[in-house]
Amino acid sequence: MAVAFDEMNGLGGDVRAAYQELSRWLGETPPEALTNRRQEAELLFRRIGITFAVYGDAEAQERLIPFDVIPRILSAQEWARMELGLKQRVRALNMFLRDIYHGRDILRAGLIPDDLIFQNPVFRPEMNGQAVPHDVYVHIAGIDIVRVDDEHFYVLEDNARTPSGVSYMLENREIMMRLFPDLFARHRIAPVERYPDELLTALRSVAPAHSSSEPTVALMTPGVFNSAYYEHSFLADKLGIELVEGRDLVVKNDEVFMRTTEGLKRVDVIYRRVDDDFIDPLTFRPDSVLGVPGLMSAYRAGNVTLANAVGTGIADDKAVYSYMPDIVKFYLGEEPILKNVPTWRCREPSDLAYVLDHLSELVVKEVHGSGGYGMLIGPTATKATIEAFREKLKREPDGFIAQPTLALSTCPTCTESGLAPRHVDLRPFVLTGRDRITVVPGGLTRVALQDGSLVVNSSQGGGTKDTWVLDE
Amino acid sequence: MLSRTAENLFWLSRYVERAEYLARTIEATLRVTALPNTYSGQGNEWDSALLTAGVSASFYAQYDEANETNVVEFLSMSASNPSSIRNCIEAARLNARSVRTALTGVMWDTINSAWIELQENWSKSAKSREQLTQFLRFVQETSLRFDGSAYRTMLRNDAYWFSRLGVHLERADNTARILDVKYHLLLPEEEHVGGPLDYYQWSSILRSVSALTAYHWVYRETLKPWLIADLLILNDSLPRSLASCYGNLVRNLDQIGVAYGRQGPAQRHARAVRNRLEHSNMEDIFQRGVHEFIQEFIADNSRLGEIVAKQYLI
C-alpha cells in the first residue's frame, strides 16, 4: 500500500497550514507531559463513567474507549465544503426514504433494482404510504467519512438508524479544554457545545401537528446494559428530557404516555435509540421486552413522532449505499459533493467475479453488518480467512459488497513509542428538523490504535480524538 | 418525574444507608468480641450481628458456624448474600447509573468512585483486621459523602424527597432491628441483673447507631437500658431514632404531596405511625413489651414502603 496522506504532514512535505500551531506546540512539549495528560484524561473518563459496553465480553462489561490527546484538525475551507456535502447527502437520504415508502419513482425509473428494496430485511412494509411529520425520516444522521489525500473525502457509510458517538464528540472537547487550556488559547476552534440545543430544537420541530406548543420529548433507551447507554443518559441530561425505557411507556387509545410519580404524562416525540425490531412487540419481534406494545399503532395514528423514523435502515444498507451518487443526482439534480468509495456489488455477477479474483486486495463487508463485525480486510487476512470468505461470497453473494482498501489518512497519535501516524476516520452528525439541516462544526474522529490497522471501530479496540474545525 | 426514576433514587439511598449500617454493625461486634471473656458475654455476638442484619437464615444455608471469619465475609464481601456491603454498593451503583440524569455530578462521582475502589482494592475479603477496619471506614465515608453531596447539591424537588424517603425508611428499619435483637437486654432494670457484661453490650448497641456520645450528652448518666430505649425510640433529636426518622418521613411525604397537589395513603400512614410514637412513653412501651412494640413498628415501616411504592413508584 502506498504511503498514506497524513493530516499534519501531508505526503511528507511541510506541515499543513491548519497544523502549524499544533506542530510547534508538539515540538515544545516534552513527551512525558503528553503521557501524563493522557493518564489524567483516562482517569477523568473513568470517574465520569464515560464507558462503552462490549457485547460478548463478560470481563469488560463497561470499557473505556481509548482517548488520544492529539487533536485532529480541519481547516475552515475543508469544513465548509464538507458541511455542504453532508447537508446535500442527508437531504437526498430523506427524499429517498420518502420515495421508497410512497411513490417509488426511483424504482420506476429503473435506477435501483426492486428486489434490493423489497427483499431487504430492513425494509419495513409497515411504513408503506405512512406519513411522517414534515417528511423527515433521518433526524439524526452519522455520516462516516474518510480522506485519502489533500482533496478527496469519501463517504464510507451512512448511519441512518441510531448513530452513536456524539457524546464522545462533546466529552472529548470538554476534557481537552480542561487538560490543554493554552492550546485552545493558541487556536480559534469552532465550538461544538450547542449540539444538544440543536438536537432538542430539531426534535421539537417535528412534533405531531396537534401536540401542544411545548411538545414533550423523551429519549428511549434499551437500558443500562446497552453498549451506548452512557450516551443515552448523557444526551437526555444535556437535553433536559426524560430517559425512558420501554417499561416506562404505555400506549392508550393510540397515544403514548410515560409513567410518572404524578400519573401518566403524554409524550409527543421519542428520540429512540432502540432498533426497529425491538420497539413494539405487537408489530415486530414478539419476544422483545425492550419495547412498548402498541407504539407502532400510535405512530401510525400520527400521535407520536419517532426519531429516526421506522424503516430508515434501508438507507444505510451497504448495497443501497453503492447507489448514493445516483440517488443524489436523481432527487436533487446536483452532482454529489461527497464521493462514494468505489463499491462492487457482489449481487451483480460481473462484480462478483472481479471480487473473487481480487479478494486479497479488497475489503469485503456484510451488507447489513455494523460495528466492524463480519468483514474481510484482504491485505491483512490469512489465506484461510480469505478462502472462508470466498465460500461465503459464493453461497450468499447478495449479502456482501467489496471496496478497495483505501489508504485512509493518518494523524499523529500518542503511542507507546512516542508520536506515530495512525489511520483515522470522521463521523460528523447531521440534524434534520422541520425546516433546516444543521451540522455542528466537528464530529467524532476515530483512530485505529494498532500500527497500520484500518479498523477504527470502538468495538474493535479503536480510540477517539477531539476534532477541531478552525474558524477563519 | 418518571416513576422508575423515583424508585431508583429511593433504592439507591436505601442501599447506601444499609451498607453503612452493616459496616457499623460489624465494627460494633468486633469491639465487643475483642473484650476479655468476663465482659464479652456468651459468645453469640456474631449470631446477633446476623440477626440484626436480617440474614440469619441465608447465612446458615451456607455456613455451619457463626464465627468472626464467616460472618464478616458474609456481611461484607459475599456475592451470595444479596445484602452484603459489596452487593449493596453494586446495587446502589447500578441504580445510580440508570438514573444518572437525576443525580448531581458529585453524587454520581461518589458512588461511581466507591464502586471503582471496591473493585480495585476490596474485591477480595480483607486479610487482616487492619484491612477490615479500613474497609469499614471506606464504606462509612462513602455513605457520608453520598449523603452530604445529596444534601448539598440536589435541588429541593421530588427527586430529593424520594431519595430522603429511602434514607429514613431504611434508617428506621435498621434502628428498629437492632433494638429488636437486643430487646432482651432492654428489659426493665429491676428484672435484670446489671453488670459489666450488659454495659458493653449496651454500648455496642449505641455504637452501632453512632449514638454513644449523644447518650451522654442527653442523659448525663451511666448506660441504662430504659434510657437507651428512650433515646433510640422516642428522642426526636437523635437522627437515627424512630421518632426522628418518622418526623422526616412525614415531612418529605408532605413536601411531595404539596408539590403534586395531592395527599394520599402514604402521607396518612406515615402520620399515623409518627403520632403513635409521639403519644408513647417508655413506661407504656415496657409494659406492653419492647419486643411487641418494635415488631409492630417494623411491620408498619415496611408497610409504608409498600404504600409509597404503590402510590408513586409503580
Please explain how this structure is put together.
Chain A: InterPro entries: ATP-dep_Glu-Cys_Ligase-2 (IPR051680), CP_ATPgrasp_2 (IPR025841), UCP005522 (IPR016450). Chain A: This is Circularly permuted ATP-grasp type 2 domain-containing protein. Chain A: Pfam families: CP_ATPgrasp_2 (PF14403). The complex is a heterodimer of chains A (472) and B (314). Chain A is an alpha+beta fold. Chain A has two domains: 17-208 and 304-336 and 407-469, no CATH class; 343-404, Dna Ligase, domain 1. Helices cover 32% and strands 21% of the residues of chain A. Chain A has helices at residues 20-28, 31-48, 76-100, 105-108, 114-118, 166-179, 181-185, 195-205, 229-239, 276-279, 295-300, 313-316, 318-321, 324-332, 349-357, 383-395, and strands at 67-74, 140-147, 153-159, 217-220, 242-244, 249-252, 255-260, 263-266, 269-272, 305-307, 339-340, 344-345, 362-366, 376-377, 400-404, 410-415, 418-427, 429-432, 437-439, 444-447, 463-469. Chain A has a five-stranded mixed β-sheet with strand order 1-21-20-17-16. With 314 residues, chain B is mainly alpha-helical. Chain B is globular. At the A-B interface, helix 2, helix 9, strand 5 and strand 7 of A face helix 1, helix 6 and helix 7 of B.
Structural features:
heterodimer; A: 472 residues; alpha+beta; Dna Ligase, domain 1; five-stranded mixed β-sheet; 16 helices; 21 strands; B: 314 residues; mainly alpha; UCP005522 (chain A); CP_ATPgrasp_2 (chain A); Circularly permuted ATP-grasp type 2 domain-containing protein (chain A)
